[in-house]
């Protein structure tokens, strides 16, 4: 039996530390960047089990950040703590970063870090806000809901884009990704995807997205990608994703230097034998879907051969994450409990 966390909170000793594990996410494409029917963006994406984010927040004498992989990441977490204190109060909190993806590489590092820190902080403050509330507070999810929804639910997700009055993108579909399928990720660590002002300027510089192309993308997702997942039809899924990516990549090509932002990633993907290839978000990370671990390993070998002698290329084979993030809470009595994103298991010791 499971009960809402709030109904158990008064029975438990105070929390002293909270660890949050958040999956990475692949943004597989926008559906209508130009709001041809009045609603902008809409996204399809997938939560994956690596490279994930893991942080621990502890009550402390003063706020602090340890383990950040860059000064920019440390400053970002400090900003989050300031915003969280203003919203929820709470005593000082020290945040330790155990591991996190490289920033601006296309795997959702910013949103996952924000939600992990926000969730841990809120639990220490005795609060259980929704991920949408935390994302709004910390300035995430303005265009896509894949990061928020992947954090909560995992799996393959389609969102409806932000609504009126800056409402968060609603989840239109959530499918369990087939366990046997794998994803090859290829990152060009010498590059970063567009972000901040550069991203805003790039979007403003693009020509209007034709309604006919938006209709084509929606048709591909509804009648190829989602049925392919539901029926475990790899060819339908992979071909649909590949065509979505080619269409949206050609649209973004003028501001990112081509269908792929990294020529090395493009060369690696050109060498693998699957139709399901593309770039997550602004890249530079590219992806390729495979129907089995064995096929993915062959794709990995081909990608490594194609980029041999090219510095900064990092390749890995990952699986989908069909569950959202996990929370591990330590109470003042040193009893450790594992919490779901919204619930606490009553069978903890």
SSE layout and pairing:
Elements: E1 2-4, H1 5-9, E2 15-32, E3 41-59, E4 64-66, H2 71-88, E5 93-99, H3 109-124, H4 131-137, H5 146-153, E6 156-159, E7 171-175, E8 182-188, H6 196-205, H7 211-230, H8 234-256, H9 263-271, E9 277-279, E10 286-290, H10 293-306, E11 313-318, E12 326-331, E13 336-339, E14 343-345
Parallel strand pairs: 4-5
Antiparallel strand pairs: 1-14, 2-3, 2-12, 3-5, 3-6, 6-7, 8-10, 8-11, 9-10, 12-13
Could you characterize what this model shows?
Helix 2 (71-88) crosses helix 3. The chain starts with a strand and ends with a strand. The strands form three sheets. Strands 2, 3, 4, 5, 6, 7, 12 and 13 form an eight-stranded mixed beta sheet that branches. Residues 1-12, 335-340 and 342-349 have low confidence and may be disordered. By secondary structure, the protein is of the alpha+beta class. Helices cover 37% and strands 27% of the residues.
Labels describing this entry:
349 residues; alpha+beta; Ribosomal Protein S5, domain 2; Alpha-Beta Plaits; 2 domains; 8-stranded mixed sheet; 4-stranded antiparallel sheet; 37% helix; disordered N terminus; disordered C terminus
| Total of DSSP H or I helical runs spanning 4+ residues | 10
User: In terms of structural class, how would the helical and strand content be classed?
Assistant: alpha+beta
H/E element sequence = EHEEEHEHHHEEEHHHHEEHEEEE
Count of distinct structural domains? 2
CATH class of the largest domain: Alpha Beta
If classified by CATH, what would the architecture of the largest domain be? 2-Layer Sandwich
Q: How many β-strand stretches?
A: 14
**Percentage of residues in DSSP E strands:** 25-35%
């Amino acid at each position: 039996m499971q009960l809402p966390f709030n109904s158990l909170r008064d029975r438990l000793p105070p929390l002293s530390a909270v660890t949050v594990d958040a999956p990475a996410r692949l943004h597989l494409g926008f559906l209508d960047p130009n709001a041809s029917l009045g609603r902008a963006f809409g996204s399809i994406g997938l939560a994956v089990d690596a490279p994930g984010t893991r942080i621990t927040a502890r009550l402390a004498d003063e706020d602090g950040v340890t383990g950040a992989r860059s000064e920019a990441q440390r400053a970002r977490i400090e900003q989050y703590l300031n915003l969280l204190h203003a919203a929820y109060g709470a005593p000082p909190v020290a945040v330790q970063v155990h591991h996190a993806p490289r920033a601006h590489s296309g795997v959702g590092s910013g949103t996952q870090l924000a939600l992990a820190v926000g969730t841990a902080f809120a639990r220490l403050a005795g609060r259980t806000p929704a991920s949408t509330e935390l994302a709004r507070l910390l300035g995430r999810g303005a265009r896509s809901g894949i990061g928020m929804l992947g954090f909560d639910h995992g799996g393959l997700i389609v969102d409806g884009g932000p609504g009126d009055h800056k409402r968060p993108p609603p989840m239109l579909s959530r499918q369990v990704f087939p366990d046997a399928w794998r994803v090859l990720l290829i990152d060009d660590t010498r590059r970063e995807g567009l972000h901040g002002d550069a991203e805003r300027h790039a979007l403003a510089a693009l020509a209007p997205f034709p309604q006919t192309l938006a209709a084509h993308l929606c048709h591909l997702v509804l009648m190829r990608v989602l049925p392919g997942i539901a029926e475990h039809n790899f060819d339908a899924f992979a071909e649909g994703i590949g065509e979505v990516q080619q269409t949206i990549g050609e649209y973004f090509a003028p501001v990112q230097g081509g269908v792929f932002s990294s020529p090395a990633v493009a060369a690696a993907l050109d060498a693998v034998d699957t139709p399901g290839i593309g770039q997550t978000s602004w890249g530079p990370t590219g992806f390729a879907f495979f129907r089995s671990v064995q096929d993915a390993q062959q794709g990995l070998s081909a990608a490594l051969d194609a980029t041999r002698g090219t510095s900064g290329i990092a390749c890995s084979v990952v699986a989908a994450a069909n569950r959202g993030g996990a929370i591990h809470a330590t109470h003042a009595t040193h009893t450790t409990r594992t919490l779901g994103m919204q619930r606490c298991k009553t069978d903890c010791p």
